[in-house]
Amino acid sequence: LDNTALHEFTDILVFLLHADPNMVNAGDMNGSGNLMDFLDEPFPDVGTYEDFHTIDWLREKSRDTDRHRKITSKSKESIWEFIKSLLDAWSGWVVMLLIGLLAGTLAGVIDLAVDWMTDLKEGVCLSAFWYSHEQCCWTSNETTFDDRDKCPQWQKWSELLVSQSEGASAYILNYFLYIMWALCFAFLAVSLVRVFAPYACGSGIPEIKTILSGFIIRGYLGKWTLLIKTVTLVLVVSSGLSLGKEGPLVHVACCCGNFFSSLFSKYSKNEGKRREVLSAAAAAGVSVAFGAPIGGVLFSLEEVSYYFPLKTLWRSFFAALVAAFTLRSINPFGNSRLVLFYVEYHTPWYMAELFPFILLGVFGGLWGTLFIRCNIAWCRRRKTTRLGKYPVLEVIVITAITAIIAYPNPYTRRSTSELISELFNDCGALESSQLCDYINDPNMTRPVDDIPDRPAGPGVYTAMWQLALALVFKIVITIFTFGMKIPSGLFIPSMLAYHHHDWIIFRNWCRPGADCVTPGLYAMVGAAACLGGVTRMTVSLVVIMFELTGGLEYIVPLMAAAVTSKWVADAFGKEGIYEAHIHLNGYPFLDVKDEFTHRTLATDVMRPRRGEAPLSVLTQDSMTVEDVETLIKETDYNGFPVVVSKDSERLIGFAQRRELILAIKNARQRQDGVVSNSIVYFTEDPPELPPNSPHPLKLRRILNLSPFTVTDHTPMETVVDIFRKLGLRQCLVTRSGRLLGIITKKDVLRHMAQMANQDPESIMFN
Amino acid sequence: LDNTALHEFTDILVFLLHADPNMVNAGDMNGSGNLMDFLDEPFPDVGTYEDFHTIDWLREKSRDTDRHRKITSKSKESIWEFIKSLLDAWSGWVVMLLIGLLAGTLAGVIDLAVDWMTDLKEGVCLSAFWYSHEQCCWTSNETTFDDRDKCPQWQKWSELLVSQSEGASAYILNYFLYIMWALCFAFLAVSLVRVFAPYACGSGIPEIKTILSGFIIRGYLGKWTLLIKTVTLVLVVSSGLSLGKEGPLVHVACCCGNFFSSLFSKYSKNEGKRREVLSAAAAAGVSVAFGAPIGGVLFSLEEVSYYFPLKTLWRSFFAALVAAFTLRSINPFGNSRLVLFYVEYHTPWYMAELFPFILLGVFGGLWGTLFIRCNIAWCRRRKTTRLGKYPVLEVIVITAITAIIAYPNPYTRRSTSELISELFNDCGALESSQLCDYINDPNMTRPVDDIPDRPAGPGVYTAMWQLALALVFKIVITIFTFGMKIPSGLFIPSMLAYHHHDWIIFRNWCRPGADCVTPGLYAMVGAAACLGGVTRMTVSLVVIMFELTGGLEYIVPLMAAAVTSKWVADAFGKEGIYEAHIHLNGYPFLDVKDEFTHRTLATDVMRPRRGEAPLSVLTQDSMTVEDVETLIKETDYNGFPVVVSKDSERLIGFAQRRELILAIKNARQRQDGVVSNSIVYFTEDPPELPPNSPHPLKLRRILNLSPFTVTDHTPMETVVDIFRKLGLRQCLVTRSGRLLGIITKKDVLRHMAQMANQDPESIMFN
After folding, report:
1. B293, A559: Cβ pair inside 8 Å?
2. pLDDT on residue B379
3. What residue intervals traverse the membrane (chains A, B) (predicted)?
4. Given A9, A552, A652, which is nearest B552 (Cβ)?
C-alpha cells in the first residue's frame, strides 16, 4: 500500500469506528497537513437512530465487526484484556441464559397467579387464601379424584358470606360476585395499561415482527412495559375474557431480552445485534407459553424473525431450553412435565381418517379467514370511529358481556386451558367429566380402551349442547376482544373454538362404529387447523402441537390439516392475522413472504420523479457550511448523496442528516475558524487555500464511502429483494455512473402498496 | 412514459425474457430505425450455464418472474391458457407429490432389499428365497419370540450345503461364505459405480450442498446416478461395511427431485427454481431415512440448503410428509409405525442426570473432532498418493477386513440398525437379548419395570466385552470407509459408535443404585451427541432423534447434549464433516456459517490488481466485431463490463461471454452485412452511419443493464455478505462512477482462503 491508500484506509477506519476518541480532524490553515486539531470526544449519539426510523443492517453489522476486531487485537495486549475478550465472546450465551431464566420464572409466576385469581372469582381457600382451588383441595388430602368440588377448605363466596352453598339466591350471589371480580380485574388492567405503559396492550407480535425487521419503537420493549404487561396479563386472563396468554408471553420474553441486552454494550449499542437477542427471546417466549422449546425456535424462525442467522438458531435453541427447563422446575401444572396438555393415545390412526383430517383443515382455513376479516373490520372501525375514544368503557362492556354469558355454561366458566386439557384427553375409567358420562357396563369386563363402544349417557348430550353454545359464543366474543387496549393473545381462544366444533361433528359420526376414532385426536388436529388458518404457520405449528400434547405418532394428520388449512385460507387472502394487524397499523414492514412480481424498474420508483425538483445533493468540495445548513433546514431527508460536482453528478458517498448536523454543531463549537462561509470538504486532502480564506471543515469521516447503488434499469423485484435481504434503509440510483435519484425503504413500501391497489399513504407509522 | 422510455423498457424486457422468439434485432443500413430484421429463433442455450460454473441467482429469479408474468397475462386470453396457468401454479405441489412418492417407494424397496441381502450372507429361506430371515420365520408361524433362530424354513448355508448346523467346520464354512458374499456385493457395487455412474459414490451431501449453493455439476443428480446409487447402496449396506444409508438416501431423493423437475419447464429451464425443488427433495430424503418428516425439513434448512424461502419450507414439509407416508404404507419394518427405533420409556429423568448428559455431549464433541481429523487426513492421503489409483482394490480390502473381524462378534455381524434398535430399547420381560440377561428372581413378584435392580447375569458381562470390541473396531473402520468410491453414509455408524461407549461407562455406574437410570436413554443421548459432533447439526438433530425414537419427554437432555457437543467440537475446528469434505474437494462453496471479520476492502480483492494489465472491457459504440472476437479469444473471463468509452470508464452494463459468442456467431450466420469490421453497438440507437460503412451489430439485448456494483471502499465483509445473500456470480467495483475492477465469487473464496492462511489455489473444482 502506498501512502495515499494508507491515508484513505485510515480515514475509512475512523469513519467505521466512529467512537474513536482521538478522531483525526485535519483542518490546518496553512494546508501543510501536518498540524491537526483533535476533537476531545466523539459526537454523542453518533451511530444511534431516532424513534420510528429504520435501521441500516449492513452498517450495524459492519460496526459490530469493527468492535469485535478491536477487542481481538486488544486481547493480545494483557491478560485482563484477554479475559475481557473471553467475557465478550460468551456474553451472548450469558444473555440467553438470563433471558431463559427470567422468561421461565415469569411464565411460572403468571401461570400460578392466573390459577389463583381465576378461582378467586368463585371462592377462596380458608386454610391459606393464596391457594387456588386445586392446591387448596390437594393439600387438604381429603379428596379423591371424584369429589374435587367437595373439599371443606374451599368455600364459594356464597358459603362464606351467607353460609349457603345451594339454591337460587346463592347462585345469584356467586354469579354477581363472579361478574364483579371480572369487571374489577379488567378495569384494573385497562387502567394500568393506559396510565403506565400504553405499549403493553395487544398481543405484541405484530409490533415485535416490525421491530425485528429493523424499525425503532422506543419503549415498546422497555422495563415499564415488561412490568405492566406481566401484571395486566394475569388480570385479563383471570377476568375470563376470551384471550390467551401466549402472544403476550412472547412480548414479555422480548422485553426480558431487551432488558438483558441493555446490560451488555455488545448488544445495547448495536441495534442489529440487539435484534438477534430479541429473536431468541421470542423463541423462549413461545417455549414457555406452550412448553414447546423446539416449536418456539421454529416459531421465531418462521413467523417472527427477519434476520435469523444460524448462530441465532443455536442461541434461540439454548434460550428456549433454559426457559422450558426453568418453567419445569417451577412446575406450575403440578405434573412435572414440560407439557401442558399431555395426552397419551394408544390407538393408531387409519388411512381413511385422512379425509376427515383434511376436512378439518378446510374448516380451519375458513374459520381463519372469517376471523381475520371480522377482526380487522372491527379494529378498523375502532380506529376510525368514535368507538376508539372510549377504550376503558369498551373493555368493561366486553368483560361484562363475557362474564354474564360465560357463567351459566360450565364450559365457558372455567379457564380455557382447563377446558382444552379436558377436550384433548380421552375418557379414562377415572374421568369424572360430563363428557365421559358413558353408561358403564356393570360387569366391566372390557378393558378401559373400549369405553367409546359403550352407549352415551345423558351427560354427553348435555355436554354437547353446552359445547356448541360455548363455541358460538367464543367465536363471536374473540373477534371483539382481540385488539382491545389490553394484553391479549390469540392462540388459546382459536384453539378452543375449534375443539368444540369437531367434537360435535365427529362425536356423532363415530359413535356407532365399534372401531371408533379417538375424539381427542380430532380435537388436536382441529386446533392445529384452526390456529393454522388464523396465523398461517405450518411447520412450527405442527411442532408446537405435538410438543404440547406429546402426540408424536400423529405428525401426518397434523401436517395434513395444517397444510390444507393454509391452502384454503391463502385462497381467500394471503395475510395472516399478524400481517393484517401490521398492515392495519401501517408499520413499515417489508414482508419476506410477499412476492413482488410487477414489471416496474428502479427508475419508476426513485425520487425525484419526472418533473420534480432535482435531488438534493452535497458536493465534495464546493459548498459552504451555510449552504449545507440551509439544505438541512429546507429538507427533511434522512441523508444526502455527495457528488463530485453538480455538473458531473458522479457519486462519491452518502452522508446521514443526523451526523451532518452533529458534526457541524460540534465543529462550530470546538473548532476555531469554522464559520458559515467555511468550505465543507468531503475529499481526502483539501487543496491549499489562500491565507485569508476561512478554516475549512473536513467531513470525510462522516461520509459513507460505500453507499449502495443500483442502475435505473434494475427491475424493482431485484431492488425489493436487495432491500429485504440486506436490510437497507436507502439505495441510490445511477445511470452510467451518474447519480439519478434515491429509493428509500418507504418508497419501496409505498410502491408495493400502489401496485397492490392500496392506498400508498397508509404506509407510515401512525 | 414517453417514447424513449418505452423503447428502453421494451429492450430490457426483451433482454430479460431472452427466449422471445421474435427478438428485435434492429440493424438497418439506412439507420432509419423502422426496418428491423428478425431472427428466426432465439439463440440456443441462452440462459443456461456451463458445467462447473456458478449460477446467478438474481438473474434466475428475474427470469422466473418474467415467465410467471407472461403466463398470468396469457391466462386472460382463453380458457385453455387459464387452465395451463393453473397447472403451472400447481406444478410445484405436483412435483413435491411425485418426489415424495418415489423417494418413499425407493426407501421402502432399499430397506426390504437390504434386509434380504444382509440375511443372504448367512443363509436362505427355503419356503421362498426372497424372504429375509425375519419374514421367513414370521410366515412360518412356528416361532415364539424366544427361538427366532430355530425356525425350520431358514437354513444357514452350512445346513444347506453340508447338512451340518453346528461344529467347527460348519462355522468355518459359514464364516467363509459370509466373507465371500460380502466381497461379492462390494465388488459388484464398486464396479457398477466405476463403470456407469462415477458420481454415485460417497454420501453425496457435500456435493448437494455445493449444488444447492448455485454450482453446476452436470450428471451429479442424473437418472443413471439415481439408478446406480440405489442398487449399489443396497449392495454396500448388505456387504456389512461400516456405513449408513442415510446420506445416500438424501442423494437418491435429490436425484428424484432433479428427475421430476426436468419434466416441468418451470423448473427444468430455471436453475434457481430447480434448486428449490432439490432443497425439498433433500428434506424428503431425510424424512424417509429416519422416518422423521419434520427433522427432514429442518435438516434441509439448517444443513443443506442455501436459498430457502418460506415457500420452500412449506413445500419441503409436504414432500417430507408424502415420502414418510409412502414409506409407512410400504411398511418395511413390519410395525406400522413411521419410526424405525420406536422406544417407550416411562421413567422421567432427574436433574442430577443433566451432568452425565453434558458429559456425553463433551465426549460426542471430542469423537466428532477426532473422526473428522482422521477421516480428512486419510481422504487427503487417498487423493494425493498412489492409493487413490486402486479404488476397487481398496474397497475389496476394507470389505474383507470388515467381514473377517465382524463375523466372530455377534454385535458387528448383524446389521447396524438391528443393533441400534436393541441398544435403544429397555430390557423387557420378553427380551431374549444377551444384554438383558439379568438373573431372574424366581418368585417374580416385582413388576417388569424393576428389572435393572436384579443382579446382572454372565451374559451382560460377555455382551459388554463384545460391545467394547465392536466400538473400537467400528470407530477405526468407519474412518477408512467414509470417502471410498462407493455410496456411503455416516449417520448410523457414528450413532452406533457412541452407543457402545456410553453403555460401557454407564452400565457400570448405575447398576448398584436402586433408582437406576434408563440405559436406553443414555444410548439415545450419546447418539445425538456423537452425530452432533460429526455433523454440527443442533436443532434438526434433536428433532430427528426424537422423531426417530418417539422420546418426546427427553428434549432437554437431547438439547443439552447436542449443544455441548457442538461447543466442544467447535472449539477444535469450525468445520463439520460435510464442510470438511467440501473444502477437501475444493468446491466453490460460500458457507453461510463462516464469518468474515477481516479489514480488507473491495479494492484489495478486485482484479486487476496494482501493476496488472487493465480490466478487459467493451465500449458501447466504438469496437468492431473483430475487436470483440479478439478480446474473447485472448481472455477466458466469463463476462465483460461495457463502458461508455475507454477514457471515461463510466459503466453501462455487463455482457456474458457465452452470450456474446452466441450472439456474434448467430449474427454472422444470419444477418447480412455483419462482417469483421462492423461496429458493435450496445447503445439504444446507433447513430446514422455513412452509406458505405458495414452493417452495425446491435447487442443491447444481451447487455445486462443492471450489473451489481460496489465502491472500492466497501469493506470486504459487506461484499461477502452481498455475495452470500444475493447469490451473485460477480460484482463490479467503481469509484465515483468510474469502473475500477471486478470481483468474482472465486476471487471472494480465494481471498477468504488467503485470510485464513490457506492455499488460495485450492479453491477450484478439481
Report:
1. yes
2. 85
3. 90-114, 175-197, 217-237, 249-265, 277-301, 354-378, 390-407, 463-482
4. A552
Report yes or no: B6 at the A interface, CB cutoff 8 Å.
no
**Nearest residue on chain A to B552, judged by CA atoms?**
A550
Nearest CA in chain B to A643: B736
With 0-12 CB in 10 A as exposed, 13-18 as middle and 19+ as buried, what is B759?
exposed
Cβ atoms < 10 Å from Cβ of B432: 12
The pairing of strands A709-711 and A703-704 is unpaired
B90 touches chain A (CB under 8 A): no
The CATH classification number of A94-121+166-330 equals 1.10.3080.10
Q: What is the pLDDT of residues A341-400, one digit of tens each?
A: 555 555 666 777 788 888 888 988 888 898 888 888 888 888 888 777 888 888 888 888
**B255 closest CA partner among B281, B287, B237:** B281
N-term to C-term CA, chain A: 51
CB atoms inside a 10 Å sphere around CB A356: 20
Question: Architecture of A351-584 per CATH?
Answer: Orthogonal Bundle (1.10)
Q: Which residue has the cell 376414532?
A: A517
Disruptive mutation site among A17, A555, A566, A606 for chain B (greatest number of B CBs within 10 Å) = A555
CB of A312 within 8 Å of any CB in chain B? no
The cell numbers describing B67, all together, are: 415467465
Among A661, A676, A656, smallest CA distance to A730 is for A656
Asked if residue A739 lies in contact with residue A650, where contact means CB atoms within 8 angstroms, the answer is yes
Q: Does B718 touch chain A (CB under 8 A)?
A: yes
| Each residue's pLDDT tens digit, B640-657 | 999 988 888 888 899 988
- Which run of H or E residues covers position B504? helix B491-510
CATH 3.10.580.20 fits B602-762, yes or no: yes
pLDDT, tens digit, for every residue of A697-726?
888 888 888 888 999 989 888 898 888 888
Where does CATH 1.10.3080.10 sit in chain B?
94-330, 351-423+450-585
Q: Using the beta-carbon criterion (under 8 Å), do B12 and A738 form an inter-chain contact?
A: no
Nearest CB partner across the interface for A310, out of B302, B328, B735: B302
The DSSP bridge pattern shows strands A730-735 and B651-656 to be unpaired
In chain A, what residues touch B329 (CB-CB under 8 Å)?
A: 351
CB contacts, 8 Å: B721 with chain A: 58, 61, 726
CATH level 2 (architecture), domain B94-330: Orthogonal Bundle (1.10)
Q: Quick one: CATH architecture of B351-423+450-585?
A: Orthogonal Bundle (1.10)
Contact A65 B738 (CB under 8 A): no
| Nearest CB to B726 within list A16, A336, A722 | A722
CB distance B292 to A555 below 8 Å: no
Numbered ranges of CATH 1.10.3080.10 in chain A = 94-121+166-330, 351-584
Distance CA B603, CA A8 (A): 12
Q: Find the CB nearest A713 among B293, B317, B706.
A: B706
Residue located via cell numbers 491565507: A691
Longest distance between any two alpha carbons in chain B, whole Å:
115
Q: What is the DSSP string of A526-545?
A: HHHHHHHHHH---HHHHHHH
**ipTM of this complex prediction, to 2 decimal places:** 0.78
Q: Once rounded to an integer, what is the mean pLDDT over residues A19-32?
A: 34
Q: How does pLDDT run across B442-494, given as a tens digit for each residue? A: 444 433 334 444 444 555 666 667 767 777 777 777 777 776 645 544 544 44
Residue ranges of A 33-62 with Cβ closer than 8 A to chain B: 58, 61-62
Residues within 8 A of A (CB atoms), B 234-293 only = 293
Residue B294 has its nearest CB partner, among A324, A543, A714, at A543
Do the Cβ atoms of A659 and A43 come closer than 8 Å? yes
Whether A193 contacts A228, CB under 8 Å: yes
